Amino acid sequence: MVRVHGNALKHGLTSDEVAYAWENPIRCRQRNGTDDPPLWISVGSLPDGRFAELIGFMDIDGVWCVFHAMVPPTKKFKRELGWR
């Protein structure tokens, strides 16, 4: 299950698109830092073939919460993932 926060929708994607992209990652990893809970970053595939950059975390109940989603992924974001 994926919970999509309202902030993830401000760049024009729908909740269904964000959830789909989170569940279909091309590349992901835990973000460096001291965030609690730890943040995960991902580039996921959308149903239409576009890629989305995503940031989320697993809540205390074990549910993924995505609070950032944007198309297309920025160069900086892809670099952070080690994907150029």
TrEMBL record:
Protein name (Swiss-Prot/TrEMBL): Toxin
Organism: Ruminococcus hominis
